[in-house]
């Protein structure tokens, strides 16, 4: 993919985030029908849907890419439609509205709730466990790629490669428990209705407007002390996570494929902040000490099946620092990656 020295603006950023990989193009070539993205208006959804449109076009297909969301902002809907993605307003928890959505042989499930879970746990459980059951009933004849999270593993000792797909889940907090519940719903209905499915445990996607690297860069730039207690993390370019999700359409199976979507490194918070401070030409200070464990995932299975990450950490750090220095747009949605008690 293109590797410019810097990202000019949001339009340039979204162009890069939606550039399909060869694996994504091949998956859309074999999709044999429309692609429906449920929960498209989140942080990743718009660029994933746009990538699906570009991959479909590159594969020579004429099928539709359809994005579904409540669309709290009309701009979100208009921006998708301008890129050739059909946009449909829908409250997915409304069973009658869900029933009226168009049929599609390929469904990407991105709906869910994380931030704001503490204090409104019933809605979190409804979105993360009840809705998947509703979607499986509605799209029992489709194949489904469903986003999950590395939070289902719990904390693991750093330096040991991270949690693998065959490790037992150990979710901490109601958000992570509800996400494991989401996985169990897709596993159950995949077996009951013979639905080919793939479950993607993401940990963590980043771009210039949000992500762990952005959270840390903003703290460094503002001369705020950085807490080292959650001393390590994984991160992956959102464009690579998008591409791997689309590639997963070609690997949906019964029982579901479960695969981690994660970057190559166990990234040190201390090292990253020191490097960001060097690039930004500022001082950095730290508090606390690194714990022996962190939320870490091993992404090797995903790289072999769905395509290896195209962008490395050095490129992401360079782009992030430049974006922060120039005052680029920010979504103001911190990841709270440092939470060790699972409260979001």
Describe the structure.
It is a single chain. The chain is α/β, with parallel strands linked by helices. It has a single domain (10-207, 235-264, 295-310), classed as Rossmann fold, CATH 3.40.50.720. The chain has helices at residues 10-17, 22-29, 45-58, 74-82, 95-100, 121-138, 173-193, 212-221, 238-247, 269-280, 300-306, 313-325; strands at 35-38, 65-69, 86-89, 106-109, 143-149, 156-157, 197-203, 205-206, 226-227, 232-233, 236-237, 257-262, 267-268, 286-287, 293-294. The strands form five sheets. The protein has a seven-stranded parallel beta sheet with strand order 3-2-1-4-5-7-12, sandwiched between helices. The chain has a two-stranded antiparallel sheet with strand order 6-15. Strands 8-11 form a two-stranded parallel ribbon. Helix 3 (45-58) links the parallel strand 1 and strand 2.
Give the topology.
Blueprint: H1 10-17, H2 22-29, E1 35-38, H3 45-58, E2 65-69, H4 74-82, E3 86-89, H5 95-100, E4 106-109, H6 121-138, E5 143-149, E6 156-157, H7 173-193, E7 197-203, E8 205-206, H8 212-221, E9 226-227, E10 232-233, E11 236-237, H9 238-247, E12 257-262, E13 267-268, H10 269-280, E14 286-287, E15 293-294, H11 300-306, H12 313-325
Parallel strand pairs: 1-2, 1-4, 2-3, 4-5, 5-7, 7-12, 8-11, 9-14
Antiparallel strand pairs: 6-15, 10-13
Helix pairs in contact: 2-3, 2-9, 3-9, 6-7, 8-10, 8-12, 9-11, 10-12
């Amino acid at each position: 993919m293109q590797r410019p020295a810097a990202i000019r603006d949001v339009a340039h950023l979204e162009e890069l985030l939606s550039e399909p990989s060869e694996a994504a193009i091949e998956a859309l070539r074999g999709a044999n029908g429309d692609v429906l993205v449920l929960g498209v208006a989140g942080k990743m959804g718009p660029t994933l849907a746009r990538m699906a449109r570009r991959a479909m076009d590159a594969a020579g297909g004429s099928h539709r890419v359809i994005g579904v969301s409540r669309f709290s902002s009309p701009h979100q809907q208009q921006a998708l439609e301008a890129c050739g993605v059909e946009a449909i307003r829908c409250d997915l928890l409304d069973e009658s509205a869900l029933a009226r959505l168009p049929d599609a042989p390929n469904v990407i499930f991105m709906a869910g709730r994380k931030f704001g879970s503490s204090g409104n746990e019933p809605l979190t459980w409804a979105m993360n466990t009840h809705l998947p059951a509703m979607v499986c009933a509605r799209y029992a004849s489709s194949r489904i790629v469903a986003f999950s999270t590395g939070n289902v593993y719990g904390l693991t000792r750093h330096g040991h490669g991270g949690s693998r797909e065959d490790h037992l889940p150990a979710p901490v907090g109601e958000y992570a428990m509800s996400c494991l519940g989401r996985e169990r719903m897709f596993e159950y209905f995949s077996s009951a209705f013979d639905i080919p499915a793939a479950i993607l445990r993401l940990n963590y996607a980043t771009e210039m407007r949000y992500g762990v690297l952005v959270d840390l860069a903003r703290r460094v730039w503002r001369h705020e002390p950085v807490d080292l207690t959650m001393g390590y993390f994984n991160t992956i370019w959102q464009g690579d996570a998008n591409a791997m999700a689309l590639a997963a359409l070609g690997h949906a199976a019964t029982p579901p494929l479960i695969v981690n979507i994660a970057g190559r490194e166990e990234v040190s918070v201390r090292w990253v902040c020191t490097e960001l401070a060097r690039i930004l030409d500022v001082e950095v200070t730290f508090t606390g000490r690194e714990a022996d464990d962190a939320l870490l995932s091993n992404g090797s299975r995903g790289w072999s099946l769905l395509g290896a990450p195209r962008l490395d950490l050095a490129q992401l750090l360079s782009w992030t620092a430049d974006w922060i220095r120039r005052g680029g747009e920010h979504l103001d949605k911190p990841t709270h990656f440092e939470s060790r008690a699972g409260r979001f």
